[in-house]
Specification:
The protein is an alpha+beta fold. Helix content is 43%, strand content 16%.
Length: 239
């Protein structure tokens, strides 16, 4: 049976999720990954020989973005056009002192999409530990930012906050200033845990099969966050 477009993207994301556990295997730090998957433990930079946030971006967030259809502009898959990500963009330097961690470009002429990244386990879907959400909220609530986008004939600001495990999406109509908070929230930690167990990076039996992971991604994650559907998903909340 032929897979539909969301299932195809979901399988790509599932494959990209294998990058993160594989890096822990390479480093001999399966125990650190086990803590991340099972507790609120924050990633230890010394354990991974790299700044925590940069490690999370390189081995989790950017691979997932690639699976969602936002290519790294230096990758072989990027042809020079289409959706791609830009690290630390200077696009907004005249209106904002700080810059978002990523700009997701060429998604739609109607939207600007930014992403704020944190180290693994610095974003929980409940409680006070919501550092990525706090950052995107600043952009969404900024009237100066909204006026700038409106002057460029944009309709929506889309802001994604993530620590790689948890993904949150906010949106704002820059004309009416109407804001939609957390219209999509997805936790990938169980999928990462299952993949790590299946690949023998951490001990234990996986609680989800690859088919179940793919189905969950196709239902909950891809429709809201993928390059092919994020525009339609956001517009559906305002129209």
């Amino acid at each position: 049976m032929e897979l539909d477009a969301d299932m195809v993207l979901a399988e790509r994301v599932r494959q990209q999720l294998e990058v993160f556990p594989e890096k822990f295997r390479e480093l001999g730090e399966g125990g650190e990954l086990r803590k991340l998957c099972r507790t609120p433990h924050t990633l230890s930079g010394p354990r991974v020989d790299q700044a925590r946030e940069h490690f999370t971006e390189q081995y989790l967030i950017e691979p997932v973005l690639h699976g969602l259809g936002y290519f790294n502009p230096i990758s072989e898959d990027y042809t020079g056009t289409g959706p791609h990500f830009v690290r630390r963009p200077s696009t907004y330097r005249k209106i904002e002192i700080k810059r978002p961690d990523y700009l997701l470009k060429n998604v739609s002429p109607r939207i600007d999409c930014i992403l704020e990244a944190k180290a693994a386990n610095e974003e929980q879907l409940s409680g006070a530990k919501r550092h990525a959400t706090a950052d995107i909220e600043e952009y969404v609530e900024s009237n100066t930012f909204a006026k700038y986008l409106e002057s460029r004939e944009k309709r929506y600001l889309v802001a994604i906050g993530t620590d790689g495990f948890r993904w949150v999406l906010w949106a704002k109509d820059v004309r009416s200033r109407e804001t939609k908070e957390a219209i999509a929230t997805v936790d990938l930690s169980n999928a990462i845990d299952a993949i790590a167990k299946r690949n023998d990076v951490i001990e234990g039996e996986p609680t989800e099969t690859n088919v179940e992971i793919r189905r969950s991604l196709a239902t909950e994650f891809v429709p809201a966050f993928s390059a092919r559907s994020i525009d339609e998903f956001v517009r559906s909340y305002f129209e």
